[in-house]
Amino acid sequence: TDAFYWDTNDETRAFSKRFNDKVGHMPTMIQAGLYSATMHYLKAIEAIKTDEAPKVMEQMRATPVNDFFAKNGKIRIDGRMVHD
Hints:
Helices cover 52% and strands 5% of the residues. It has 84 residues and is mainly alpha-helical.
């Protein structure tokens, strides 16, 4: 099983179309997950105006992940993300 399928809903299709237009194929679960994680990281930095790791991790844990890849995601204290 996979945690991501490009044709699940309108959000996954929109992301996958943009990805396909740039790369030439639909994204895998790993590619979609890495994009989601990277965007969550960058949004945390933008919100707190620093890239100091402890502060960024605190912000990332405090902010739910709700994007095309994960709904109601939370980063646990061990760094793993769980979602619906």
